[in-house]
């Protein structure tokens, strides 16, 4: 039950973290227009490279290390401060590097300076600690309040196409304030540690091992926006971000299991219980497949009308781009389960690093010709093929550790259910009246069809749901 509660907390926050900008984006897209949205997307893609350097792989590493030592409060406090010291130093180095970058990059100086607030916020992000101790309630409640305040601020202060800088500042300050709200609990939850007992640099090389895959991952997360801005125009970069935002909203429901399961699996590994680790992976893989497949088909079915209807006039290209990108929902669900939930906790960082590096290389190679010839849609296909490459490599990496037969035993049931759901919903979306009421009806029909098919095919997710209900009623 603890894992389920943490999953729901994490899903709640991840969804809120995306829903807030998603709600505001319907307003912002009209107020700032495609040009303003594109300017934010392009400049944000640049600052993300510096944020990546400041973060230094700490998200995964800190989460895992805290999970290993959480039964010893003194050791946990020592580990926290050692990791945080390294992170602070890396953030300062990133700020200096960014200031040097601004000497040579003179375009959009005001936007870039506003984006630098996101870099400062990184130093105060200690969410990885609460993930390691599996206390998701603290981060969810406090950050949720800040997100809601930021949403109100956007509606109050962003009034016209010249408010791009102010919009960037509001988003960045919400991140900074959200991170700062976590610190009072740190001082309360951790015992005092002597500074002389700290040895932060023992964590540096292990962090670098996880930093490499994060670099590779960011290549095809951020590089697409950057290259679209350079090779096509900044408006195309904005289209990419808006498509990606809707897809990431769906993904939040899936990848939240990775954040929750990583410390849980790591703790089982620390006790040497590998049979339990494998059992958890099989169940998790089935669960993410059961929810990712209908989300992939469902989003693809309504994307052509959803994007322009939601974002407004001038955002028509987002629809086809989103339909292509919907494929990554399943690919990321699978490589999140295999990579974050399995390879990292069992100390197979090398295989994890190679897998995301493979994806990055595929992305870089394909981006130039695909963006050159097909623009926005080319960037989307490059993203999809990159994620397929990551998943394929990870499946090869776990071939001697996991049983493919068990892993994929029921996937066909979810795929068939998804296809049967997709066909009528897509037909309705492209042939019937285009309205919010009709789109809502399409979603409801899709959910009913998929649920009915899963029940009829007796997929494992049904038995797991029944078991959970029985346990809840038993209490």
UniProtKB/TrEMBL annotation:
Pfam families tied to this protein: Polysacc_synt
Keyword set includes Transmembrane: yes
Superkingdom of the organism of origin: Bacteria
One cellular component (GO) term of this entry: membrane
Annotated TM spans: 7-29, 41-62, 83-105, 140-158, 164-183, 246-266, 287-307, 327-345, 352-374, 380-402, 411-430, 436-457
Membrane topology field: Multi-pass membrane protein
Alphabetical keyword list: Membrane, Transmembrane, Transmembrane helix
Places the protein is found: Membrane
Keyword Ubl conjugation: no
PANTHER family in the cross-refs: LOCUS PUTATIVE PROTEIN 1-RELATED
Annotated protein name in UniProt: Oligosaccharide repeat unit transporter
